[in-house]
Amino acid sequence: MEKRKTYTVSGLILILLGVIIASYPVIGYCASTYINSPHAVLKPGSNFVYAGYFLTGDFNLLLVYNVTYVENNKFQVKFDLYNVTDQNHVTIIYFTSLNNPGKITGNPQHISEKTVNLSVNDPLIKTLFPESNITIHVLNYSKTSKLTIRKIPFSFDFSPYSLGFPYIYAPDLPEPLAKYGDEIAYYRTEDRYFARTLRVVGSNVSLQYHSIVDGMPTHVPIGVTPEQLDLQKLIPAEIVSNTTWRYIESSYPTIMILGLLRTNVQPTHQNWLGGLEYSFTQYSAPVDYVLILMGIVLLILGGRAGQ
């Protein structure tokens, strides 16, 4: 009888331990970071920092947008511009956690900074924080598209120490356009979306394309334009006038991936069940499998010991 009890108790403990290990990232994130963080864009103090490269015909520009909601539908935007050369060895490390936010390594040369207050109707604000739709561009075509959950397996970022397990939202585009919009992605909060990554393209580039789908050409990059990011408003006039704005990198008009560096806002639309599933099968596996399997074996042995 004593042997049966020992097997049974030990088996239950191992199974419970396996479940705890697998579910800890989800439970830990929810109990600490998630419930103690803001979940709205339009909340005083909500802060978002974006960084990315803009390749011009003259030199590479590193852009940093530090965007904070103040009040009365106003955002304060601090815009920093850097020159990047091959010798700078500059690397953008995007967000990893609230306690270990993203950063820029290397030695970029600071060119200018500008701080402005922008309304919710400004092109930059509407692009970074849309309510439901995003206007995307390719060549001289444009289309306003609603944002929908990206329908791929585990369509969220598994990052329990940063933004948890949020769904990723992307423009609702027909095939074959959809695959070109992968680098336009958003998270969803209580009141609106905020950008995760934005691909930027030039609107004045002449390229050959194969076909038109839903009013837009295929086989060329899709994104937002420099105008949507207020670049000519935020970059000093002398730099704008002395820069070759050809918007060309290689043989296609991709210029920049603008990505989220850090934020204190947690998305509300989280895939909790998907997070648990991913943790069981990927994140904590095979440790949780081994513990649960050992627990089941001990329960079987306990059952036989009682016979």
Present the secondary structure layout.
Layout: H1 2-34, E1 47-55, E2 60-69, E3 74-84, E4 91-93, E5 103-105, E6 109-119, H2 123-128, E7 133-138, E8 141-149, E9 169-171, E10 185-188, E11 193-201, E12 212-213, E13 216-217, H3 231-234, H4 237-241, E14 254-263, H5 272-283, H6 287-305
Antiparallel strand pairs: 1-2, 1-14, 2-3, 3-6, 4-5, 7-8, 8-9, 10-11, 11-14, 12-13
Helix pairs in contact: 1-5, 1-6
What does this structure look like?
This protein is α+β, with helices and mostly antiparallel strands. Helix content is 26%, strand content 30%. The chain is built from 6 helices and 14 strands. The strands form 4 sheets. The chain has a 7-stranded antiparallel beta sheet with strand order 6-3-2-1-14-11-10. A 3-stranded antiparallel beta sheet has the order 7-8-9, with no helix packed on it. Strands 4-5 form a two-stranded antiparallel sheet. A hairpin with a 4-residue loop joins β1 (47-55) and β2 (60-69). α1 crosses α5 (272-283). The chain is elongated. The protein starts with a helix and ends with a helix.
Number of strands: 14
Overall radius of gyration: 24 Å
End-to-end distance, in Å? 10 Å
Report low-confidence residues grouped into runs of 5 or more. Answer: 246-253
Strand order of the largest sheet: 6-3-2-1-14-11-10
The helicity comes to 25-40%
Kindly summarize this structure in a few lines.
The chain is α+β, with helices and mostly antiparallel strands. The protein is 26% helix and 30% strand.
Features:
307 residues, alpha+beta, 7-stranded antiparallel sheet, 14 strands, elongated
